[in-house]
Amino acid sequence: MSIFVILGLLVCIEAQGSSAVTTVFLQKGDDLILNVDADVPEKFFYVDWIFNKTVVVRFADNGDRSVHSDFTERVEFPVKKFSVKLKNLQEADSGVYTAGAYTRQGEDKPLAEYKVTVQGPSAGTSVYLVKMVVFSVGLIIMVFAVITVHLMEKFRKHK
Predict the structure, then answer these.
(1) Is the pLDDT of residue 151 over 90?
(2) Threshold 0.70, pTM exceeds
(3) 69 class by beta-carbon count within 10 Å (0-12 exposed, 13-18 middle, 19+ buried)
(4) Closest CA to 9 of 69, 71, 17
(5) Can you give the residue ranges of every domain in the chain?
(6) Beta strands in the chain, from DSSP E residues, in sequence order
(7) Predicted local distance difference test score (pLDDT) of residue 104
(8) Could you tell me if 65 and 77 are in contact, meaning their C-beta atoms sit under 8 angstroms apart?
């Protein structure tokens, strides 16, 4: 009995700790907007979006921003401050993206974290979609046939 209580507490603790991480599953070629919803310190030096120890985008306190050369053609900046839109994601873009603010006093403040998984289209999904389309078309034809027979019966009765 006590083992279940301990496991329940662990699940609750894990759920509370993981609330800051946004998990996202995307298809290859999709776009993703990375948002900063946390409060950025008033006197920040810069805000970075980091992926695999690489600074993808840096926002400086003077309004300048710089983009890593690997992402230059795939980054846009939505209206929301410090947010980044990554375009045409590939499987290699899977991983953890973190945003952090760094102050002139040397303090850093985590702002956002996204765990991103980019998957290629699976054959199972394609086969499923084809089956659904075939089923839907068959259903439409069957309903059309039933309506036609019903209308024909009505016309016969009225003659």
Answers:
(1) no
(2) no
(3) exposed
(4) 17
(5) 21-119, 122-159
(6) 21-27, 32-34, 44-51, 54-60, 65-67, 75-76, 84-86, 95-103, 108-119
(7) 81
(8) yes
The CB density around residue 93, as the number of other CB atoms within 10 Å, is: 21
50 token code pair: 């980091």
The count of residues in the chain is 159
Could you tell me which of 46, 57, 52 has the C-alpha nearest to residue 108? Answer: 46
Say which CATH superfamily domain 21-119 falls into: Immunoglobulins (2.60.40.10)
Residue 126 has pLDDT above 70, yes or no: no
User: What is the three-class DSSP state of 31?
Assistant: coil
Cβ(118)–Cβ(26) below 8 Å: yes
Compute the distance between CA of residue 124 and CA of residue 154 in angstroms, rounded to an integer: 45
For 108, the token pair is 């850093």
Amino acid at 114: Y
Q: Any idea what DSSP says for residue 134?
A: H
From the list 129, 97, 83, the residue with the least C-alpha distance to 20 is 97
